[in-house]
Amino acid sequence: MDTEQRMMDLVQELINNSVAATYPYHNFNHTLYVYNKTLEIAAHEKCSASDIRLLKAAALWHDTGYINIYYGHEEESCVQAKKYLPEFGFHPDEIYVICGMIMATKIPQTPHNLLEQIIADADLEYLGTDEAPVQAQQLFEELRMLNPYLHEELWNRTQIFFLEHHQFFTTFCKQYREPLKHGYLNGLKLKL
């Protein structure tokens, strides 16, 4: 079995054997979605093979912190990455770059370079797709698990505020995802 597949299997095992397996949104399916979108955006941004290797690792590990903590999971994801990535041949300076990418997914997103922009966009790429209502509903259900007082009107207002302030960073998402994101935002405004 190759190194990448072993790493993916480990991340899946860690997530599926934790409370994160019960989350409607932040589960292993989300990790795979972000992984695939990272590769799609990286191809459009013409990333090198070495950059794609780092992006793959960051996408796989970006939400592993959920196995231990909900709020502040990005920092915990970096703890997990630092713990496990050496066994997959990653060096300390590569892990530092990977942790920068993981931290770029923290809301509000503040990526500092192209690789961080790619993973930040991959993490929220669904906002500019037909999947936005479905994935947003899954996130709403997850947040209601943590706060049963969260209701749909408050959730919609929260989404509207978030979408009005959100920006995509990569040329791919600006071109192909921004228009649908605005359509989703307009649809939410009609619900209020």
Could you characterize what this model shows?
With 192 residues, the chain is mostly helical. The protein has a single domain, classed as Hypothetical protein af1432 (Orthogonal Bundle). Helix content is 67%, strand content 0%. The protein is built from 10 helices and no strands. The chain has helices at 3-16, 28-44, 49-61, 73-84, 92-103, 114-124, 132-146, 152-165, 171-176, 178-191. The protein is globular, with a radius of gyration of 16 Å. The mean pLDDT is 97.
Write the layout of secondary structure elements.
Layout: H1 3-16, H2 28-44, H3 49-61, H4 73-84, H5 92-103, H6 114-124, H7 132-146, H8 152-165, H9 171-176, H10 178-191
Give a quick precis of the structure.
The protein has helices at residues 3-16, 28-44, 49-61, 73-84, 92-103, 114-124, 132-146, 152-165, 171-176, 178-191. With 192 residues, it is mainly α. The protein is globular and about 50 Å long.
